[in-house]
Every structure is written in structure tokens, then in C-alpha cells.
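Encode chain A's predicted structure.
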Amino acid sequence: MMEEKDFVETTVSRENVFNGKIISVAVDQVVLADGTQAERELVFHPGGVGIIAITEDEKLILVKQFRKPFERTMLEIPAGKIERDEKDPRKTAIRELEEETGLGCSSMEAIYDFSLSPGFANEILYLYQAKGLYPVARPADQDEDERIELQFVTLAEAKELIKSKAIFDSKTIMAIQYWELEQLRKK
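Encoded structure for chain A:
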């Protein structure tokens, strides 16, 4: 069995390739524990949040929006990136819920956090569940470049949307699986 030290990669040099509003890209030259040299392309991202928001009538709130990398609209749970000056993902989740749905909540509970593409990116997504939803009188504005539409779906409908690939992203699939497990625990 290999020891932890056998997995370590030592960075020899880093070339910063791109610094954008959201991501930074670098190329690292590394040496593996056995002396082998390799190159690693890395994407640095401040992280994001996803929110499971279920209405009193047991419907999950989804956001429909165009996703440029896939050149299509997608259905996702409300979500957003952590701003560089934000330190508390929970506050980001509260802000994003309000911006995207016009709703506030009495509690925002952390579910779990996870990496999205650990092979090349350091982005962590923090998944929360909003409870005690209520309309906000004057909700924060959506981002200027966002065009979204809300949809409300039952658990059965959500599972069908996964099968048809209308729901295609990992955070939303994980949120729906979490919701289903919670339903099973209640039985």
C-alpha cells in the first residue's frame, strides 16, 4: 500500500495564464514523488453555493437559464458564486436565494460541501437547504446579465427531468437525491 507521501506533487514553477473576473488559470510544472515531471493546468475559482428551496406544497424551486458552455438552457437549483470579498458561504446562499427567487428564509442549513472538478479546478460548492420560505418585500436585484425563469417541480417531476437531461448539473442532481433521501427517512 502506498503512503501519503507517495502521492505528493511538488510544484517547481507556476505560470499564471489568465486572471478574469471569476476564474484564474495557471500551469504548474510539478515533480511527482518518484521524480517524474508533469504539467498541471489549474483553474482557481472562489467557490459557489447551491440552495435547496422547497415550498410548503412540497415543490422544489428551480431556475431556468441559458448556460453558455453548453449552448442551452438548463434547470438548476438557485445558486451563485461566492464573491471574492465574501467569507461566509451561508451569507452568499441567503443573497442568492433572494436575488434569484425573491424569497427569504427563516433558516439556511448547511447540507454538505464538495469539489466539482478536482482534477483541474479548486472550486468548492456549498449546498444549503432554505427553510421557512417567505416573500421579500423588496428583493435584491438579479445580476444585470442574468435572464432567469422560476419553475416549481415535485420530486417525481424532478426525477423525470434528470432522466430527460433537462436537469444536467451535479449540484441540482445531488440536491434532488438529498431531497429524496429526506423523504425516505420520513417514512
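Helices lie at 89-101, 155-163, 170-186.
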